[in-house]
Amino acid sequence: MYRLKESFIHYIKAGLALCVLFLLNACHTDTRYHVYQAVSGEEGWDKSDSLAFHLPVGLSSGEYRMEIGLRHTGEYPYRDIWLSVTQLEGDSIPPRTDTLHIYLTDEKGHWVQSGAMGGLYQHVYVSDKPVIFSTDSIDRIFRITHLMRQNPLPGISDVGIRLFLSGRVNAEKDKQQDGKSPQ
């Protein structure tokens, strides 16, 4: 009887492990690039310190969606942040710069995120404009700088970029690279 009960418990554990595995697999996204960089400087993020995100060579031309992620402490002194995001693609295509205005608090001044993990709040801004790579360039860079008046800007810890498929990417080329795309 005891062995039967023990065997039953092992089957339950194995079943739960399989369920978790299937759930994790179901959460797979079409993320092609996702990197955070720490802001240098003990006193804060200096305007002259742009963060450069060098995209991998294997990223196909096409249309992507972009998220900008910010991690900040409770010492960040403002409700919002203004960022400049410049897309550089090879030598022949002129750079494209967007200015983003991201609110980090609600109308009452409370951080939009609930709770802080390790003393940091994380805010993700999904851009409404698609990112379009017109060629299979080997030299793609995003540069992000802050446009706030205070310099250096205290409280910002990390800035990140996530690029994910929006539906109009060269799918044939992505199939060939399946498993080789950086995650």
Radius of gyration: 21 Å
Order of helices and strands: HEEEEEEEEEH
Strand content: 35-45%
CATH architecture title: Sandwich
Number of strand segments: 9
Number of helices: 2
Characterization of this structure:
The protein contains two helices and nine strands; from the N terminus they run αβββββββββα. The strands form two sheets. Strands 1, 3, 6, 7 and 9 form a five-stranded antiparallel beta sheet that branches. A four-stranded antiparallel beta sheet has the order 2-8-4-5, with no helix packed on it. The chain is globular, with a radius of gyration of 21 Å. The protein has one domain (30-176): Jelly Rolls (Sandwich). By secondary structure, the protein is of the alpha+beta class. Pfam families: GldH_lipo (PF14109). This is Gliding motility lipoprotein GldH.
